[in-house]
Amino acid sequence: MAWDINRDKCLRCGACVSVCPELALDLKEGGIKNDAEKCTLCGICQKVCPPHAIEVKK
Ligand code: SF4
Ligand code: SF4
Question: What is the pLDDT of residues 28-55, one digit of tens each?
């Protein structure tokens, strides 16, 4: 089980941050940060990411 991001693909649009029901994502200087303690691996962020930069493995 894991949440992963391809930082080369990420456009920093913030869409994933807005939709995460657990508020597990944050857009920082270095890119998107995932708080593994909050993330339930629901996969919503993966679905809304325009360049498909997020991969959620259950
Ligand atoms: S998988 Fe779900 S809980 Fe985890 S960061 Fe994405 S939207 Fe949030
Ligand atoms: S939705 Fe995708 S491209 Fe946009 S900030 Fe999140 S990871 Fe990056």
Answer: 999 999 999 999 999 999 999 999 999 9
Assigned architecture for domain 2-57: 2-Layer Sandwich (3.30)
Ligand nearest the Cα atom of residue 56? 1
What secondary structure, in 3-state letters, does 34-48 show? ECCCCCCCCCHHHHH
| Binding pocket residue ranges, ligand 1, CB within 6 Å | 3, 20, 22, 24-25, 34, 39-45, 56
Cα Rg for the chain, rounded, in angstroms? 10
pLDDT band at 1 (very low <50, low <70, confident <90, very high): confident
Q: What is the pTM of this model?
A: 0.95
Ligand closest to 31 (CA) is 2
